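Structure tokens please, single chain.
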Amino acid sequence: MKTATYFGPDSKALGEPFNRLLDNDEPHPVDCRRLDGVSDFFLACDHAGRQMPRKLDDLGLGGADLDRHIAWDIGAAGLAERLSETLGAALVMQRYSRLVIDCNRPPVAATSIATVSEGTEVPGNRDLAPLQAHARLREIFDPYHDRIDAELELRRRAMRRTVLVSVHSFTPVFQGESRPWHLGLLYNRDPGYAHNLSDELEGSGLNVGHNEPYAVSDVTDYTIPVHGERRAIPHVMIEVRQDLIEKEQGQDEWAERLSGALLRANSDVDVAC
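Here you go.
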């Protein structure tokens, strides 16, 4: 199943040869861990990295901006890796910055390749030619989602139980307003697994937001609607506040907390293959 929805002409219509974005010596966009893990859980981290293709010259931004949330989900990769290790779960992560192309946005979305992010202009994303946008889709977005799709399909054929968990982080303050939640559990049409997980977490004194500080939709999100809902497997997007997981100690603590809750919630739900 081809997961990506392309938003422009194909490379033949634009002329050959296809101009590559990534040089051969640059990192592959997809970082996989423990694909042979026996766990029911399958983890995805859409905004794990802040890598920039050499040809984009950091999109005209300074180093301080590339350290911010606009470029990646701070702490999410470390948390996802520790969850993968603790659970023995497969993990697929995206190495390149969301500013190159957002791997949790439909390619047709206006924010897929953002020209402004949280009030910061992104000069290198302005006035892109169709061929330039196509290169980002073809070399970064497609390989990531095609790999997730392929791994989930292998699990389906093997009749393996699967729960999809998408790992993200959010800023403590947005546009001057503090966000009180320790974490948010996000979902769209099917809240079942998220509600089970919430029941396991709320008793521990945590401030758990449902569809906070964001909500999942077909317009704004990709991983949960495409890989979770279309496959009809239990799923949840977990957003942890960044100040809680920006350091390794916090990542370890939250991995321990979440892994136990995920396992308990899993035992209370009928998990599809």
